[in-house]
Amino acid sequence: MVRKINCDCSERTGTEITSIAYFKEIKLFFLKQTKNKIFISKKVTRPYYSGVGQNEVIEWYADKWYVCNCCCTLWEVNYPDFPAQGFVRKYSDGKYYAKDENEL
After folding, report:
1. Would 102 be classed as within a structural domain?
2. Omega of the bond prior to 47 within 30 degrees of 0, cis?
3. From the CA atom positions of the chain, what is the Rg in Å?
4. Cβ atoms of residues 17 and 80 within 8 Å
5. What is the pLDDT confidence band of residue 53, given thresholds at 50, 70 and 90?
6. pLDDT at 4 > cutoff 70
7. What is the enclosing helix (H) or strand (E) of 39?
8. How many independent structural domains does the chain possess?
9. pLDDT of res. 72
10. For the chain, what is the mean pLDDT?
11. What is the dihedral sign for C-alpha 15, 18, 19, 23?
C-alpha cells in the first residue's frame, strides 16, 4: 500500500515572526514538514529586497525556501534579528516574485 502525503498549505498564510517563541514554533514546523518529506529545502536564489546605496547595490536574501511536494507552494522564511522581525511568505503558484512589504 502506498502512503499518500497530504499538506495543509491551502489553510496556511504568510505571517510576521514577532517573538522568539513564535520563531521556534515556525522553525519546528518547517523542520517536521521537511523530515516527513512534505516540504523540501530549496536554495534561495533571489533577493526579497534590492536597492542602491552609495556606490553599492544592496540585496537582502531570505534564510530559507521550502517547496511543498504535494501542491508545489513555495515558502520563503526570513529569520528575525530582533528587534527586527522575521517573516514567512507564501507563493501558492510556486513561482517567486518580489512582494510588497505589507503583503505576506
Report:
1. no
2. no
3. 15
4. yes
5. confident
6. no
7. strand 39-42
8. 1
9. 97
10. 92
11. positive
User: Domain for residue 81, yes or no?
Assistant: yes
Range of the domain at 68: 14-91
pLDDT in the model for residue 99 = 74
What confidence tier does 85 reach under pLDDT thresholds 50, 70, 90?
A: very high
CA 16/CA 7 separation, integer angstroms: 21
Q: Which amino acid makes up residue 45?
A: T
Residue 82 lies in a domain: yes
Domain presence at residue 3: no
Residue-wise over 10-29: b if at least 16 C-beta within 10 A, else e?
A: eeeeeeebeeeeebeebbee
Residues with Cβ within 8 Å of residue 70, at least 6 apart in sequence: 5, 6, 7, 9, 38
Q: Which of 96, 87, 91, 88 is nearest to 73 (CA)?
A: 91
Tell me if 78 sits within 8 A of 16, measured CB to CB. no
